[in-house]
Amino acid sequence: MKAVSFILGILLGLCWVTKAQQFAASVQHYGPENGLSHREINAILQDRRGFMWFGTRFGLNRFDGLKFTTYTKERNGLDFDEIEAIAEDADGLLWLMGPNTEGKRQITLFNPLTGTAVSFEEKFKKRSLTSSQIYGQRMFGSPDGTIFLANYQPATLVSYHPRSGLHYVPLARYKNLVIHHVTARNTVWAIADGNQLVELTADGRVLHTFRHDVGTISVDLGTPHAGTEFFYTAYRSDTDLQGVLYRVDTLGNRRQLPASLRQDRTAFFSPIYYAFDRSGMIWTGTQLRSVTKGILLDLKEQLAGQSIDNRCFFADRNGWMWLGTSFGAYQVKVTENYFHRFFYEPTTIQEKAASIRGISVIGDKLYANLEKKGLFSCDLSGELVRKLLVSGISYGLTNSQPGKLKIGQIDLVTYDIRTDSQTLSPLPNGGSIWTMSPFSNQHFLAGGIVGLWLVETKTGQVLPFTRYNQFPELAKSHVLYIGADRQGTLWICATTGLYTVDPSRGITARYWSGGKGHFRLPADSYQHFYQDSQGLFWLATANAGLIRWNRQQNTYRQFRRTDGLSNDNIYAVYADRRGHLWLSSDYGIMQFDPVRMTTRSYTVQDGITHNEFNRIAHVQAPNGQLYFGGLNGITAFNPPDFEREKPPITLPLQIVSFRQFDNALDKLVDKTEEVVKSNRISLQPGDRTSVLDFALLNYADAQKNVYAYQFKGLDKEWTYQTEPSIRLSNLPYGEYQLLIKGQAADGQMSSANLTIQVIVQRPFYLRNWFLMLMLFLLIGSVWGWGRWRAWRHQQEQARLQTQIKEATELIAQQAQDLLRLDETKSRLFANISHEFRTPLTVILGMAASLNQKFDPELRQMASLIERNGSNLLRLINQILDLSKLEAGEMAIHLERADLVNFVGYVGESFHAIAQAKGVHLQFQSKEAHCEADFNKDKLQDILANLLVNALRFTPTGGQVIYRVAVQNRWHSLTAAGYHEELTPTSHLDQPWIQITVSDTGPGIEPVSLPRIFDRFYQRENPQNASGGGTGIGLSLVRELVGLMQGGLAVRNRPGMDGHGQEETGQLWSNNSGQALYSRGAEFVVSLPLTRRAPLAEGQVSAPSSIHPAQPQWGEPTLDVTSERPVVLPVVLLVEDNEDVATYIQICLRGEYQVIRAENGQVGIDQALATSPDLILSDVMMPLKDGFALCDTLKHDERTSHIPIVLLTARAEVRDRIAGLRRGADAYLVKPFSPEELMIVLSNQLQIRRLLQRYYSQLALGVAEPIPNDAPETGEDQFLLRLRSNVLPHLDNPALDIEMICTMMGTSRNSLHRKMTALTGLSMNRYLRTLRLQKAKDLLLLPDLTITQVADAVGFQDPSYFGRVFAEEFGLSPSQYRDVNKK
């Protein structure tokens, strides 16, 4: 808002202090440029909420101190735009009176909360009231909200109150009536018949009458105040310009006033008479007049050039006087001025104003440094102004010695008041001095822009201060004040903190925001301090407010603008006799009550020189008078004068408007009335359009108001802002209390906080009714679902009963079928036993007979037949035993014998197998003999299966140990890491026999331990197994041990040897992922030790020995580096079963040379070492199987050309496909015929010969080109790479096999074997042939001689070249050239 503000200090004759009583006036002007709808102001009113209303020629205006809001006929439905009068009824409705139209006045009732209007005629169904063209007509509202109007002719008094309604009181005694004033007693003063001033009650009774038969009566503008109801003037005639002025008090008494108070009568001037106080002073709109003192205050000189014609007048509740004119509204406040001004420039010319930097009072003289003007003095009445010093910019001013002043400039100036002389003392470090204080007997301590100085008291010499100690930052800071507290401690206020200094020790402490413990204060820049009688420090800070510091208790409290201060930049703090603190700041002077913690501020409106004061420009005289220097002189005052001051005005905080989008109406709706009356706001979910406007009704510097709001229950802190509005959006669901407070520019807080209940509605799906509905629906659904489930359950029960019945019948039928099947199986096994045993008896008998013959070859075949027939008989016996055990038909017959001796005998039968495999088989027993009850056949089966299993999985060089031990009772083996498959339940406290079989094989995967005793279970990929198994051996062991009521357990042996040293072994992982090393498996069979059976007859005989196959391998001696062809093709046989290997050797005898490898890894090594012509391999083998062998050899350049035939018992199609994908050339399934084997091997050799012919041509570069879409084999790539490496070096005579091996990255033997197998050519033969092939091409070139061709292909001797060429092609080089020329 743009406002012209005039600050008037009426000092009656001079701009300095006078002895007369002073008044200060503040004037602000508002016009259309500030938001008024028109410059002509006809009526002014302050409503009950505190808003100011202005009736103009073009609409109604509401003013909240910051902005005007206009209401017009067009926008708000008023009946007219020109407002002549405004009154407020008890309901808060504004009654608006329009202009005189054809002798009538229109009236409109306006609701300020909704902005809507209704005409008088429409509301009350009455006609408009008549009005006089000469006297006009007015309308007034009493304090209780009664509206009074008058019908001019016939004379009728009209009143209205919302409770009593509209009343018409005819006054027959009068011809016409015009009311001019209403009292607090609900009476009206009116002019009747033009010559009578009468007081009437609401019912028409006459209380007072003042008759003036001659001339006219004019009721002057004004409002009741100070016991006066109004003033009026009686004019004797139209030419009478003075008239007689009367005062009417609240009791209706009239008193004539002296002529000195009268104002002249003009055609366009309505006099204003307002009782300023009860002393008789009257405000006339621009002057304050006194009966005895005349004019005390006059604004006309300050309003020069502005036309003031009074149209209306209003004094509001806060003492502001509002004057409506034809050129806007004037806001005037006149107060008693307790402030005195020195060196003050009353005009608004900035260049003439004097900024004060230093102040000192000596006796009855006031001294001041006027910035850029020098040192001045005057007496304490403001007279006898004298300029003392002119040179330089002056800052600090100190009365350091009697009769002398210290002035801080670029140098330190010492001014002698008595002699009017000066001396200069230069500053050693530059800068300027701002403050000084006694420091010791010899020095003053001075401070300024760059730290501290010492000033000698006698000579005035300035010395640098050096004892900063651990506070060097002070040397570069700005020191603003140095003073002592009540204990004599000297304190320094600087921009880097608050310091203490000692004359002998220097700087001793620093208090600042970075301090720890007792040295911490909330601010860093301090400008002044005061210590009260209780020892509390009051610290004036730069932009951190006022700090109350209890140094002893190390507590402080900060007072800022949010706590009521007018400004946070405090320059000085002084106390008066009441203990109130007086503060100068960047915005006025503040009086702070340290008990109530309240602040009252004073600005230029209250008579001070300027709102902004200066640092170090302050002093308190010995009599308590305070002097504060600012940007326009010095403000002086005596604090006791303010003890009779009136309390500060109250500032209401009101709701201006509340707008909310209505979804039903699809528009923004004004809901101000609803919120004002209910103090309640309801927000829909997701509402982002609701805006609440409010205003602190402060009519002085309202643009500097500050507001704060807090949602109680949601916010912990207040939110401060300058905008008088809040957008209510994004609030969470729930109820909150919205608190709003305001603060004026002078720090005064709003008289009360706005408290509004804000309810953020939940979405319909979160409201109680919806939740209850959902609950009922849920309960109903659950009940219905329960009923349905019960019905379904009944139906399901019936169905299940039917199914159970059918299943029972089916089970009974299946039980009968199983019983018959079991009987059939038993008969089948008995028949198979008979059928198998009969041919096996013949086979074994004939094999035994053949074994007696003398032919070695025949005996070898007979042994092979006998051994495999015995294995088949043992397998049949095991199957039959399992069948009997399942059927419960196997009986056990115990006999007493030496168990240790029997176990030893059984183990001896496996020594031959262990010796053949290279495994050490050892028997251990602490007991030499142990007589016990056992069944020899069953125990032999148990031991045989365990030993066969151990030997199968133990590699060459390993060890198998079987031992017998006697225990005094049963001991569980679970704690030792065993998996206990069978745990006995009886005989636990009796002696037990423990038979242990352990090996040094790879062990058993932990996940497989519980399954190895399952029937037909076989481990996948047994890496060290020497042959496959049937999966029934260990299952039979479990059944036999269970039959003998014993215990069975297994574990992996720990990876430690007998000496506690760590051994390498198979790495397994347990169920928790922990790594375990195994050194083989260990089986434990526990049998109860009893001696109740009858003794066995005779000695225990050892079972027949089991002899392994002993094939006589005729290993050929092959010289693979020789160029002579091998007589028979070499076949590498990779087979782990000795008998199968012997049989294949017999089949291939005479046609092939056979090399044997017992597993896949040995087979790979032998293939790389010997490069055989064919490889015949089994699939299931230890270490590496046949698939891995294929994969390795086919991807190795040295062996990729060798045909591989897989021979195995795995006959599934997927196994064949897997082998062919790994690179196998052929696949044969066991059992096979020798003829089939021979044909397959012969075909592979024939294919190899054809490939040799192709590869030899490819190596020499004479083969047909390979189609682009044909895949290139590894052999093709090898030969092409060999040729591409050799061709560039054919002209080198030194090129030999060693150089070629280096280029190919292989050994001589490997390259030779590879080339021989692929092409049938040795490397020497290949190299010579390649040279000759290139020579043929070169001979076709006529430019080359025979010698040059020989050199180009690496022949140094042309004659040798010719001889070799002729041997190769049957033509000499020259003959070849001649033939090809033709």
Automatic annotation (TrEMBL):
List of residues that carry 4-aspartylphosphate: 1178
Gene Ontology molecular function: DNA-binding transcription factor activity; phosphorelay sensor kinase activity; sequence-specific DNA binding
Response regulatory domain ranges (all copies): 1130-1245
Catalysed reactions listed for this entry: ATP + protein L-histidine = ADP + protein N-phospho-L-histidine
Source organism of the structure: Spirosoma agri
Name assigned to this protein: histidine kinase
Keywords annotated in UniProt: Coiled coil, DNA-binding, Phosphoprotein, Signal, Transcription, Transcription regulation
Record Gene3D superfamilies: 1.10.287.130, 3.40.50.2300, Histidine kinase-like ATPase, C-terminal domain, Homeodomain-like, Immunoglobulins, YVTN repeat-like/Quinoprotein amine dehydrogenase
Signal sequence residues: 1-20
Assigned EC number: 2.7.13.3
